[in-house]
C-alpha cells in the first residue's frame, strides 16, 4: 500500500525559470539512469526476494519508494524551471512573458534548437515533464535489470546508483542556479547512500562470488590474456593475488595465440593460480544450488497462499509500528 504525502522529501527550489536546463533535467526523469528507472528496477527485483529474503525485500521496497519521491522532486524542479511557459503557450494572443524569457536572438535560436531536438517537451506537452530523456526518447522497460538472483541484482543496483550519481554530477555543471544545485546535490548524495546500502546488503549474502550458483571452471578462472600489442601493463588485475583469496594468484599469458595452440584451444589447459579442482568446483555448485533452493522452499507453501497477513509486524512487512496502531 502506497500513501502519498504532499510535502517533498527535499524542498526543491529554483531562482528563476530556465527552460534549457529543464530539458536537460528530463534525463533524470525519464532517462536510462533516471529516478523512474531506479524505482521500477528495485520494485521489480523485490518480488523474488519477498519470501526467501524478507530483509532484502524491505530494503528494495524502501529504496524503490524513495526513488519515486526523487522522481517527484525532479518533476517539481522541471515544472518550476518552466514557470510561466505553460500559461504563455496557452495565451497565443499575448506572449510577453515568454518573449522576455527568450529575449535576444541567441536565446531564441537556442530554444528553437531545443524544441527541434525534443519537440514533445514544449511543442506537444506544453512544458510539463514527460517520460522521456533529454532527447525525447521515451522511457522503456528495457532500462530495468532484474535477474531474480540477489547476488546479480544487487550488483546491478550498485552500478545503477553509480551511473545516476555521475549524471547528477554532470548536470550540476550546466546550471548556475544555487537552489537547483542544492536539489541536485541532495539527489546525488542519496545515490551515494543507496550505493552503500546495496553494497552492505550484498556482503550479508555468503557466498556471493561468483554471482549466481555455478562456480567457474578453475582451468580458466585465474587466466589473464594479454590481448593487445605494445607495452604490457601489469597491475592487481593481472598479477599477484589481486582480489583472490590467499594462496591464489593470476596466471598471466603473454602470448594468447601460442597458449591456445599448445592447449588444443584451451581444452587441455592445466589449472594454474589455484588449487581448486573441477571436481571441487562442481561439488561447490551442487551444495550452493541446494542451499539456495532450500532457502526458497522453506518459505514456499503448497496449495493456496496469500501475500500478506493483517496486521503485519515482523520483518516480512514494510509496515512500521506506528502504522499498526492506526
UniProtKB/TrEMBL annotation:
One of its GO terms (molecular function) is metal ion binding. Its cofactor is Mn(2+); Ca(2+). InterPro entries: Ferritin-like, Ferritin-like_SF, Mn_catalase, Mn_catalase_dom. It is an enzyme of class 1 (oxidoreductase). Mn(2+) binds at residues 35, 67, 70, 161, 194. It comes from the Bacteria. Residues 272-282, 301-315 have a biased composition (Polar residues). Keywords: Calcium, Manganese, Metal-binding, Oxidoreductase, Peroxidase. Residues 269-326 are annotated as: Disordered. Ca(2+) binds at residues 58, 62, 226, 228, 230. Its EC number is 1.11.1.6. The keyword Metal-binding applies. Binds 2 manganese ions per subunit. Binds 1 Ca(2+) ion per subunit. Pfam families: Mn_catalase. Belongs to the manganese catalase family. This is Catalase.
Amino acid at each position: 500500500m502506497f500513501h502519498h504525502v504532499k510535502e517533498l522529501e527535499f524542498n526543491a527550489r529554483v531562482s528563476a525559470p530556465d527552460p534549457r536546463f529543464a530539458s536537460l533535467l528530463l534525463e533524470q526523469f525519464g532517462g536510462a539512469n533516471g529516478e523512474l528507472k531506479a524505482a521500477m528496477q528495485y520494485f521489480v527485483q523485490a518480488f523474488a526476494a519477498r519470501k526467501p529474503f524478507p530483509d532484502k525485500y524491505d530494503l528494495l521496497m524502501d529504496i524503490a519508494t524513495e526513488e519515486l519521491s526523487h522522481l517527484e522532486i525532479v518533476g517539481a524542479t522541471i515544472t518550476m524551471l518552466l514557470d510561466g511557459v505553460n500559461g504563455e503557450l496557452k495565451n497565443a494572443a499575448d506572449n510577453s512573458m515568454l518573449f522576455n524569457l527568450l529575449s535576444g536572438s541567441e536565446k531564441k535560436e537556442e530554444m528553437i534548437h531545443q524544441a527541434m531536438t525534443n519537440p514533445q517537451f514544449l511543442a506537444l506537452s506544453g512544458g510539463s515533464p514527460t517520460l522521456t530523456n533529454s532527447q525525447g526518447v521515451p522511457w522503456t522497460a528495457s532500462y530495468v535489470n532484474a535477474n531474480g538472483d540477489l547476488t546479480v541484482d544487487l550488483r546491478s543496483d550498485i552500478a545503477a546508483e553509480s551511473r545516476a550519481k555521475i549524471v547528477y554530477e554532470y548536470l550540476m555543471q550546466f546550471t548556475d542556479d544555487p537552489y537547483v544545485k542544492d536539489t541536485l546535490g541532495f539527489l546525488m548524495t542519496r545515490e551515494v547512500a543507496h550505493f552503500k546500502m546495496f553494497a552492505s546488503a550484498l556482503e550479508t549474502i555468503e557466498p556471493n562470488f561468483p554471482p549466481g550458483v555455478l562456480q567457474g571452471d578453475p582451468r580458466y578462472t585465474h587466466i589473464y590474456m594479454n590481448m593487445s600489442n605494445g607495452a604490457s601493463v601489469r597491475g592487481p588485475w593481472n598479477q599477484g593475488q589481486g582480489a583472490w583469496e590467499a594462496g591464489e594468484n593470476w596466471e598471466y599469458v603473454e602470448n594468447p595465440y601460442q597458449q591456445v595452440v599448445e592447449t588444443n584451444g584451451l581444452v587441455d589447459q592445466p589449472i594454474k593460480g589455484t588449487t581448486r579442482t573441477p571436481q571441487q568446483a562442481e561439488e561447490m555448485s551442487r551444495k550452493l544450488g541446494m542451499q539456495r533452493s532450500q532457502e526458497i522452499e522453506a518459505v514456499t507453501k503448497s496449495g493456496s497462499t496469500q501475500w500478506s497477513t493483517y496486521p503485519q509486524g515482523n520483518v516480512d512487512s514494510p509496515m512500521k509500528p506506528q502504522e499498526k496502531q492506526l
